[in-house]
Amino acid sequence: MLVSEGFTTQNGTAAGDSLAVSVVVPVYNEVEALPHLLAAIATTLKTNQISYEIICVDDGSTDGSTEFLKQQAETRTDLKAVLLRRNYGQTAAMAAGFKYATGKAIVTLDADLQNDPEDIPQLLAKLEAGYDLVSGWRIKRQDAAVTRLLPSKIANWLIGRTTGVKLHDYGCSLKAYRSELVADMNLYGELHRFLPALAYIEGARIAELPVRHHARRFGRSKYGLWRTFRVLMDLLTISFMKKFLTRPMHVFGLFGLLSIALGMLLGLYLTFLKLGLGQSIGNRPLLFLAVLLLLTGVQLFCFGLLAELLMRTYHESQGRPIYRVREVVGKNVK
After folding, report:
1. pLDDT tens profile 245-268
2. Exposed, middle or buried: residue 278 (CB in 10 Å: 0-12, 13-18, 19+)?
């Protein structure tokens, strides 16, 4: 086990007496799988002498998962149970898990036993090799071909093309992160699946590793084709954030100026027809188009100004810089 980055030491205790890894597990109606999952995680990490904690975030379960996690958290020292008031979705559950994680690395995986906890050590080893995020790649997925595999392949291709981060399996929940990477990430909607793209925006080094994938043993899948629309909307958000997060005026202002310019050209043309040639322009569709383009351009330009003010407020109110420093080198650096 590599120790250069301080995730573990040879006796299984993280350097500085802090935990090596926090395993974050979003849970929604998985009471049958939970005992097996907790046992598998604990066995794997203890065998590999990795100090750990398990953070199970119950996302409004109704099948007894909440009660089971409460009971386990009261008797186990390696388990935190974060119980949400209602079902908020996987993104919110992961954000809650990140908040309560104290490990130097954070590993996420599903609660349905389809991800294999035995793959966690190899993800951590890849982090220790110098990466900031390591994503699992389910080479042999045990899911339905039409409803799960085909949409997933299309989504992975589309996300890769849009974000510039080409991964084979964006939907794999089994991922490992350096804790500082996710410390200031704000997640909304379905953005958990876009964490590699968000990390890339922050300048993270990303790797992908093949991992095992098992058929579901208990319960039923919580995913379906109905999530496609929400994923597409969040993809547009990520694309905008990647290109224009700190300079929204560049997109709104550009389209606004183009619209104004085109409206003015049409206006000049219509003015020439009216004053120069004496033609009637009151019933011409071009007149309505010119007015519409001018109004739309002014609105887009104003949107850009407002977005610039919002971005400045967002960064300045939180003291959040618009850059990320990976490392500072020097003899006198403190």
Report:
1. 667 787 888 888 899 999 999 989
2. exposed
Query: What is the model's pTM?
Result: 0.71
Q: Two tokens at 70?
A: 């409460």
Helices (H), the chain: 34-47, 65-75, 90-100, 120-128, 150-163, 179-182, 195-201, 228-244, 249-271, 285-318
Radius of gyration for the chain, computed over Cα atoms and rounded to the nearest angstrom: 25
Q: Between helices 65-75 and 34-47, what is the axis angle to 10°?
A: 40
Task: Give residue-wise pLDDT tens across range 190-249.
Answer: 677 788 888 887 788 999 999 998 887 776 665 555 566 666 776 777 777 767 766 778
**What CATH class does 15-243 carry?**
alpha beta
The span from the CA of 92 to the CA of 88, in Å, is 6
Phi/psi for 125 (5° steps) reads: -60, -35
β 206-211/21-27 pair status: unpaired
